[in-house]
């Protein structure tokens, strides 16, 4: 059997997830089984980014928002505004919150290959790195 190109596989997955809904467990299991069978499990992160790119081309923008704790809906709406402006032709601009305590505060927004990290955790890591660099001098 010929190897399916990753971007072609991403288009298929993007179509199926938009048709069936993103939480289709059978589809996820089928994709996982295919990647394992073809020894392509190392491509998963790239494949997911390609699926997001395909969604964008189809008018569906899904922003992953990593936050320390659940936030009010009004804050999520504010976080989406720049993406709605950037993708005015999108039929749907969705925000998927993911609780990640290491964020501490603020948010880290991800979309395909774009990332905007406005978290307190990132600021603390940068501060710690700068202090360690000064100690070595």
Numbering strands along the chain, what is their spatial order in the largest sheet? 2-1-3-4
Class from secondary-structure proportions:
alpha+beta
Low-confidence runs of at least 5 consecutive residues: none
Total domain units: 2
Secondary-structure element order, N to C? HHHEHEEEH
Strand content: 15-25%
State the end-to-end distance: 58 Å
Any overview of this molecule?
This protein is an alpha+beta fold. It has helices at 6-20, 25-37, 44-57, 73-86, 120-136, and strands at residues 60-67, 92-99, 107-111, 114-117. Strand 1, helix 4 and strand 2 form a beta-alpha-beta unit. Helix 1 crosses helix 3 (44-57). The longest helix has 17 residues, at 120-136.
Question: What characteristics describe this protein?
Answer:
5 helices, 4-stranded mixed sheet, alpha+beta, 137 residues, single chain, globular
